[in-house]
Amino acid sequence: MASKFQKRLMGTIVLVSIGVIVLPDVLDGKKTHYKEGVASIPIKPELDSAVESFEIREPIEDPVSLPESPIEVVQESPQSPSTEVKDQVAVSKKEHPSQNAYVDSAWIIQLMALKNAENAKNVVKDLQKRGYQAHAKLENGFTRVIIGPDVSKSKLERQLVELDKITGSKGQLLKFKPLNP
């Protein structure tokens, strides 16, 4: 038979388990559940038929906006009236600006070349925060810090003095080569 202590212990365990399981449901009162409204996105939206159809128009030719032809045709009259009359046509080409005409049109400042790429990137970030057009370029194991390009050489010359104060490095003013910056 069980002792009084064991009976009391079993009674206490039964009462506590009833209290833990049943009492919260009894004392909770009316439960309210919050349910968010879920709206599904339609797979294909329904469109009006007027929206789906459209009219294709013919292109409008504007002869004023067309560029001139680079070839001019000039007709010359024959030199002697006794020879057969054949029109001679001389073709002259208009000269277009050379593609190399813009080689000296921009400048850059090569501020420094660093072996550590992370340090170069930090310098570039700092200069960009200060309003400079700074870039980093990896070349032959070194990372060059470049300011520019800019068409105003005098502006970059003034920036050289400011950059010397900021970084302590004297930069070089170089011509910008777009194909090989």
TrEMBL record:
Instruction: Report residue spans for region: Disordered.
Output: 67-94
Q: Which UniProt keywords apply?
A: Cell cycle, Cell division
List GO terms (cellular component aspect): cell division site; cell septum
**Record keyword Coiled coil present:** no
Q: Is Hydrolase given among the entry's keywords? A: no
Q: Which InterPro entries match?
A: Cell_div_SPOR-domain, SPOR-like_dom, SPOR-like_sf
Task: Enumerate the spans annotated as SPOR domain.
Answer: 101-176
Q: Which GO terms describe its biological process?
A: cytokinetic process
Where does this protein have compositionally biased stretches of type Basic and acidic residues?
84-94
A Pfam match is SPOR
Name the Gene Ontology molecular function terms of this record: peptidoglycan binding
Name recorded for this polypeptide: Cell division protein DedD
